[in-house]
Design goal:
By secondary structure, this protein is an alpha+beta fold. The chain contains 12 helices and 17 strands. The chain folds into 2 domains: 236 residues, 4-Layer Sandwich (Double-stranded beta-helix), CATH 3.60.130.10; 59 residues, no CATH class. Strands 3, 4, 5, 6, 7, 15 and 17 form a 7-stranded mixed sheet that branches. Helix 2 crosses helix 5 and helix 3 packs across helix 5. One of its GO terms (molecular function) is 2-oxoglutarate-dependent dioxygenase activity.
Amino acid sequence: MNWINYRSVKSLSYERARIAGLPETYILTLSQEEASIYRDMALAIPFNPYRQDEQEDFVRSAKEIARSFAPSSRKFIEEHLQHGFGAVLVKGLPVDEELPITPQTGGPLPPDYKTTFVSEAMLLALGELTGAEPFNFRQEGQGKAPLIDNIVPVYKLKTQKGAGGFDNNFPFHCESAWHRKRPDYLILLGVRAAEDAQTLVFSTRMFEGTPWQTASADIRQWFRLKAPDLYVQMEKAGIPMGTADFALKPPIEHGPHGIQLHINFNGTDCIDMKAVEWLAELEDFIESKTVGTIISSGDALLLNNYLTCHTRTGYSPVFNGMDRWFLRGYFKKDLWARNEKAAGEVYDEQTFREMIALGWMSDDGTLTTSFSKFVHQPEEVKKLEDREAALATLAFQLTPIAGTRLV
């Protein structure tokens, strides 16, 4: 089948000049008293989230902060995030009082780059309120993925449609919608703001009263979502994807619990020109209905990754050490749940026995911590002989390993 790359046919043309603000209905502002309590709790955490051997202790400590949130705040977040608009902006969060300059590159931070980790603790505390576990994809940070991503402008990546880029060329998307471990929730927490950079949000609620609310089910086979270019490049360089290269998903899906989005206007193939035209109409509709907000220091935008899609406007960093900087966290329910269907597709009896012999798999069919080095050290995969490399490619489709957080 000759799939058509949507983006190669529908050129980018985003005005994004008149964006309505995120409605006050979806904004939760913490009191100074609450913020003070959370700041003290965060500063009391003796662990560093950027040290792998201290990460789980930091996560556990941050979850204690979540338990201190007022019942009214927890209810507000749950109602709007889980069952409503799908987005909540939390304002008034405590911040790190002494900040270094904005990093020149994103992804992981050196463990000693910051002296306090108040923002990181608040990100994970808010994640706990979603009922999901924090995790990340191995490929982030050019294969040096931290649990928490630091997103900053990078001069040489100006036109990149994603982290590091800052041109007005970033299409709407749901985060990693093609991946078998797609995030259920995404949190963006401001460290430093750029006053000309808006984060844009579209919700399924905006379909109400329009023909899109009853989009035909016959579009299911019209589209396929694909992996980002970075992930494909890393796979070609010997770092396995860990999931299928493509997923057949319609941009809008009607289910028993309402409409869900599977949007990535920069990573969708269409079956024919009719599908291209349909998707172009949808993109134009989303662009016309979006709302936006500037994520300032002490703000956190929580997004339901099935009820919303998002992007940002272009902006103009000056690279003086004070540029835009925010934290990004992914959260997944049942992160370590065993997928029997996936397991059955990954290995037959011979493969199973070979993985056990290598020490990568236990008798019950789960990956062991012996395989962890290939997850955390991508260069180790390249050292494997052909058969072992093929087995590792299969094993990655069973990650994350129980108790770890990289997929």
